[in-house]
């Protein structure tokens, strides 16, 4: 059952505004080139994310986050990988005894069905470019999930171990 809302008597009805269409990916047939600085300027201060490329097979996402941003403990049924463009992060990855520490210029790979939790470290925002299969969102429903990440947000060492 729905309830129809009407303005008080004597006031004109205003038509409902339609939802804006989804933004096209940053890179598309009309926009074949961009830069990290252009994307940051358009998006403003973090946290936010923006689709860079999307087709029927691959989605590439620009993810700009502040230290301490909460991310969810999840997995995918397909591979997922990232390029670190700015900042420092750590991945708690199922099957790995220690976090995987990364910095600008590094790549990270999460195999299929592997729970992972991402932490932004340090005192600066981080940018990661995520590569995933189109339509493959975060999953939390595996029959045999590992226990939640033990370090959790804010409890991960801000500095990677020497010799990383």
In CATH, the homologous superfamily of the domain at 36-133 goes by the name Jelly Rolls
- Main sheet: which strands, in order across? 1-2-8-3-6
* CATH architecture classification of the domain at 36-133: Sandwich
Q: Gap between N and C termini, in Å? A: 59 Å
For the record, what CATH class of the domain at 36-133 applies?
A: Mainly Beta
Number of E-state strands: 8
Global mean pLDDT: 86
Helix content: under 10%
Shape: globular
Low-confidence stretches: 1-5
Overall radius of gyration = 20 Å
Query: What count of helical segments does DSSP give?
Result: 1
Q: What's the CATH topology name of the domain at 36-133? A: Jelly Rolls
Main beta-sheet annotation: 5 strands, antiparallel
Q: Classify the beta-strand content into a percent band.
A: 25-35%
Task: Briefly note the structural class of the backbone.
Answer: mainly beta
- The topology string of helices and strands comes to HEEEEEEEE
């Amino acid at each position: 059952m729905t309830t129809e809302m009407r303005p008080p008597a004597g006031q004109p009805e205003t038509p409902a505004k339609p939802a804006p269409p989804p933004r096209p990916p940053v890179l598309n047939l009309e926009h074949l080139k961009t830069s990290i600085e252009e994307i940051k300027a358009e998006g403003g201060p973090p946290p936010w994310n923006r689709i860079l490329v999307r087709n029927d097979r691959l989605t590439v996402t620009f993810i700009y986050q502040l230290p301490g941003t909460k991310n969810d403990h999840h997995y995918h049924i397909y591979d997922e990988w990232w390029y670190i463009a700015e900042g420092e992060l750590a991945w708690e990855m199922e099957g790995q005894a220690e976090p995987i520490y990364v910095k600008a210029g590094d790549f990270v790979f999460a195999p299929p069905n592997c729970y992972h939790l991402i932490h932004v470290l340090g005192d600066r925002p981080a940018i990661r470019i995520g590569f995933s299969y189109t339509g493959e969102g975060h999953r939390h429903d595996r029959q045999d999930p590992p226990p939640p990440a033990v370090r959790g947000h804010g409890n991960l060492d801000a500095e990677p171990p020497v010799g990383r």
